[in-house]
Specification:
CATH superfamily of the largest domain: ibrinogen binding protein from staphylococcus aureus domain
Structural class: alpha+beta
Shape: elongated
Number of strands: 22
Oligomer: single chain
Largest sheet: 6 strands, antiparallel
Distance between the termini: 31 Å
Number of domains: 4
Radius of gyration: 35 Å
Length: 564
């Protein structure tokens, strides 16, 4: 990717349609991103502006986004100062990744005012700042305090540009002085060019180097000029090269043929960043629940270790029972205040020494051993029952951890949250506003090479719905043998299903399981009528009979081709 100064220059030509447009509404998607609803040239546009540390950008968007219930403070400030305002001008600062929107608005008493919205698209240092016409800061989406030793971004302070090295603007300044600023003896010419020319990215410098062949004092200036001249033609392109993805505003010869060409730069950027931003948002939401599940998994593992220790200790109970019996049988031989009793053990036909408490009577010592026996017996029984439940819980949390790895949509995050709440693992605060309606469960659809429909559940709610409600008794059900994974169903009568369909559905069951990276994975399959949910069992847990087993190897490429 290369959202550099050159790209911004081309993008602003495209966004000139927003000038004289009215800002009808401003909404904030998250802590770093905003949507401006703008009416310009008779049409409504949505301008996305983001200071996200990884996905900083600005462009027109056609996607729909959710917004928080309570407007953040920065959003309130924008609404106060520029909502309803007119965009007079949009300009780039030099050839840098800084852009200023000049907006004519009105203050509380109706007087005309000018506000400046400043975008700094600089990776993790990106920011969105609003100032008055004299560049006095009204607010910033990210604050920099006075003690940060660089500059201050806080209300009431004067706006200062980011502290960057002074560079040559290749669009307005004399490029003839470029060779004099390059030390050809020290090497790393590409990095030196980045440090000298404003708005250039490593991607663009690689194109210059490709045109030069090999940098030297004679060809560096012609190569820069020739590459800049070729870049005058705007062509929104997307590349996939050596396992990496990139986009640019013009073709790059060193990357070969583009994989896709877009009609607009906004369309290109919108497409490139939307899924990445959405996936990052999903991951961020899912991480909170992942931490809860990991904590419960580790806690259950420690509980199992403790229960094993209790059971090991309980093995001594039979010894205590025997001591009690022997003391009772030889009570007449035991004297008060003895510290031990040496008696004949009729179980082993040997003498045995039994420790005694000299402060207790012989009968009390016998009762003490009986009491220890009964206590350990009860502990053993309870530990065995708890161990059984803990192992089930550990298996359940293990399956949840696997399901968290498979999450691809916000709906799946919500399904996990609902399940954790229903199981009492997390508590959800009561919301004051109206509760959202529960969404319809969406299963994942595939087709075998023979055209048969295969449905996959990627979490427990989907698995329960697929197996218990969606499928019919004569449909074929698949699951990895004793391995956490998805429920998979061929949604056709058994009589219509061939051996190749079975192997392909089994491959999907193995692919959507914890054994995804393994070979020869055992997968059980049976008809739905033989699959039963145990009363009181954890979500997604079933028992089944009359199964057959096949061994398959998961294949990512084949699974993707089977998507319906």
């Amino acid at each position: 990717m290369a959202f550099d100064g050159n790209f911004i220059r081309a993008l602003l030509d495209e966004l000139s349609c927003l000038e004289r447009g009215k800002i009808n509404k401003i909404q904030q998607m998250d802590n770093t991103s905003l949507i401006f609803k703008i009416r310009a040239q008779g049409t409504s546009q949505s301008l996305l502006i983001s200071a996200h540390p990884m996905y900083a950008r600005f462009h027109l968007t056609g996607h729909k986004y959710e917004f928080p219930f309570e407007p953040p403070m920065f959003l309130r400030m924008l609404r106060k100062h520029i909502e309803g305002g007119i965009i007079k001008n949009i300009r780039q600062i030099g050839n840098d990744r800084r852009v200023e929107f000049f907006i004519q608005s009105r203050n509380e008493i109706g007087d005309d005012t000018e506000r400046i919205l400043i975008l700094e698209i600089m990776g993790r240092h990106s920011n969105i700042i609003i100032t008055d016409e004299a560049y006095n800061i009204l607010d910033g989406i990210k604050h920099l305090t006075p003690n940060n030793n660089k500059r201050t971004i806080m209300p009431g302070f004067m706006y200062e540009a980011p502290p960057t090295k002074e560079k040559i603007n290749p669009r307005t300044e004399d490029l003839e002085k470029l060779p004099a600023k390059i030390d050809f003896n020290s090497g790393k010419i590409d990095r030196q060019i980045l440090g000298v020319l404003e708005g250039f990215s490593p991607l663009f410098v690689k194109e210059i180097e490709y045109n030069a062949g090999h940098f030297n004092i004679k060809n560096i200036l012609p190569a820069v000029k020739r590459t800049l001249e070729a870049a005058e033609e705007t062509k929104p392109v997307f590349y996939r090269h050596n396992g990496k993805e990139a986009f640019y505003f013009t073709e790059l010869k060193h990357l070969g043929e583009p994989q896709a060409v877009y009609e607009t730069l906004s369309g290109l950027v919108d497409s490139f960043y939307h899924d990445r931003y959405r996936n990052a948002l999903i991951k961020q939401k899912a991480n909170d629940y992942l931490n809860v599940i990991e904590r419960e998994y580790e806690k259950t593992g420690r509980k199992i270790e403790k229960l094993h220790e209790d059971l090991q200790e309980a093995h001594e109970k039979d010894e205590y029972q025997k001591y009690g019996e022997l003391l009772t049988a030889y009570m007449h031989q035991v004297r008060q205040y003895d510290k031990e009793a040496v008696v004949f053990d009729y179980y082993t036909s040997k003498e045995v020494s039994i420790p005694l408490d000299p402060e207790l009577s012989p009968s009390d010592n016998a009762q003490k051993y009986y009491s220890r026996y009964n206590k350990l017996k009860k502990r053993e029984s309870a530990a065995e029952e708890q161990l059984k439940q803990a192992k089930t819980d550990l298996e359940y949390f293990s399956s949840l951890l696997h399901q968290m790895e498979q999450i691809t949509t916000e709906e799946e995050v919500e399904e996990i949250r609902e399940e954790l709440h229903e199981e009492g693992i997390i508590k959800t605060k009561k919301r004051q506003h109206k509760k959202k309606k529960k969404h319809k469960i969406q299963l994942h659809a595939f087709k075998t090479s023979n055209g048969l429909d295969v449905l996959v559940g990627k979490n427990n709610k989907q698995n329960d719905y697929l197996t218990s409600r969606k499928s019919q008794n004569n449909h074929l059900w698949f699951h990895t043998k004793e391995i956490p994974g998805s429920h998979v169903v061929i949604s056709h009568p058994r009589s219509q299903i061939g051996e190749s369909d079975i192997l392909e559905a089994a491959m999907l069951a193995a692919y959507f399981s914890k054994a995804q990276d393994s070979e020869s994975v055992p997968v059980d399959y049976t008809e739905i009528k033989h699959v039963h949910k145990v009363s009181g069992a954890k979500p997604g847990f079933v028992t089944y009979t009359d199964q057959h087993t096949v061994f398959v190897t998961p294949e990512r490429t084949k699974a993707e081709k089977m998507k319906a």
